[in-house]
Each structure stands twice: as C-alpha cells, then as structure tokens.
Amino acid sequence: MAKVKKELFTCADCATQACRAKDEGHYPAFCLTAGLPQEKIDRVNRKITSSRKLRKIALASAEVEGTTYGKLCRVEETIAFFEKIGGKKIGIASCMGLISEARLFTDILDRKGIPYYTVCCKIGAVDKGEIGIPDEHKLNRGCGHESMCNPIMQAELLNEQGTDFNIIIGLCVGHDMLFTMHSKSPVTTLVVKDRVLAHNPVSALYTSKGIYSRFK
User: Fold this and answer.
1) pTM value?
2) 153 HSE (CA, 13 A, CB side)
3) pLDDT class of 65 with cuts at 50, 70, 90
4) SS3 at position 187
5) What H or E segment, with its residue span, contains residue 166?
6) How many CB atoms lie within 10 A of CB 25?
7) 140 burial class (0-12, 13-18, 19+ CB within 10 angstroms)?
8) 11: Cβ–Cβ under 8 A, 6 or more apart, which residues?
9) Domains of the chain by residue range
10) Residue 214 backbone zone (phi > 0: left; psi -120 to 50: alpha; other: beta)
11) Helix axes 175-182, 151-161, angle to 10 degrees
C-alpha cells in the first residue's frame, strides 16, 4: 500500500509535547498550540467557566486524574468521577455480548449503593431487515429474524429514566456514536468492544510492528 504524502502535521507528529508545561521554546514549527489565537483559547475557557455543567465535569475529571493517577483502575476512576460530580443515577448502555461484564459492574454498583438502569443493545427486538440491512450482511444468514442493535432506543430509555451519567459497555463502532448523539446526559466508555483482542484494542497498536504489521 502506497504511503500518503503528509502535507499537514499535527500533534501525533510532535516529539516534544512542550504544551504540557507551556515550554514555548520547544514548540515545533507546526505546533497547534503556538498557532492558536489567544481569543480562541479565551473563548473555550469562558465556555467552561461560564457553564455550571461543563465546569463541574472539567473540575471533577482533573481532580480524579490528579489524585488517583496510577492508583485506580478505570472502573474505580469511573465511580470516583460519578461521585465527584454528585451523580444520582448511572445509565448503562450495554452490548448483549458483554451483558456478563455489565452484570459484574452492576454488582459493584450494588455494593456501593449507587442506583443504575441498564439497557442492552437488542432492545425492541427489531429485525435488521426493517432498516434495510440485507440478509447477506447479517451474522446468521438465512436464519430469519435477527435483531438489530438499537443504540438510539437505548439512549431514549435512559433519557426517560433521568440518568445523569451514562456508561457504554461494549457497543459496536458506530452504535456508540448513535448512542452518544442521542443521550441527554454525558457519556463515558468503560469497555471498548474488540471481539478479536479480548476487548483490548490498544494491543493491536502495541503489536503493529509485529503480528499486526499487516496494517502497513
């Protein structure tokens, strides 16, 4: 595969990460931070400080990072964040294929006394054909009814439940987008689905120069 000639350089091309400490002397020539107008920086800052909701999320996430970095796993961080923002009820949008993992998570929430509401992806039992998916694109071809994933319905049911913090557990690529687009509450992801790599997609990046060199 021919490599695309790069004409636009971004943060992935930076070798200094000098913006971490505003070390302006080491910004690369293409630095996105150096190219930002101060007006734009100020406008985004005002957006955070003037919104009670955004400010609460920004402060809670920074506090969880600053006090628990390298000490808590993602499950613990998620619960700590929920508590920091004063959350009342967690919504869980789970893939049916990871319902066992969702149950393990809700067991933890039960022990902590945290209210939650779980909706799996096949809610509504709508056949894939009803939205135009042909039989050859079904998992079980020629077997009749096969329920589609229904992330919009998942979001609507959680909206009706009044959850103020929604968590994705294993929704497919694209389905997670539809869910996030229709959720009225902030959304975070606890589990990213990767059926081949035991739901650990970053391992493909770590081995991209080895077994996954097929990416080249």
Assistant:
1) 0.91
2) 12
3) very high
4) strand
5) strand 165-169
6) 6
7) exposed
8) 32
9) 32-71, 74-128+147-216
10) alpha
11) 30
- Yes or no: say if 197 and 204 are a contact pair by the CB < 8 Å rule: yes
Q: Is the pLDDT of residue 193 over 90?
A: yes
Q: Which residue type occupies 179? A: F
Hey, what are 168's tokens?
A: 């994705």
pLDDT at 106: 98
Domain 74-128+147-216 fold? Rossmann fold (3.40.50)
Tokens coding 63: 């506090």
Element (H, E) at 81: helix 74-84
Q: What angle do CA 61, 24, 42 make, to 5 degrees?
A: 50
What is the DSSP track for 89-149? Answer: -EEEEE-GGGHHHHHHHHHHHHHHT--EEEEETTTT--BGGGGT--GGGSSSTTSS--BPP
Please compute, for residue 49, the number of CA atoms within 13 A of its CA located in the half-sphere on the CB side.
6
Who's near 117: CB < 8 A, 6+ residues apart? 89, 90, 91, 92, 157, 158, 161, 163
Q: Dihedrals φ, ψ of 199, to 5°?
A: 60, 40
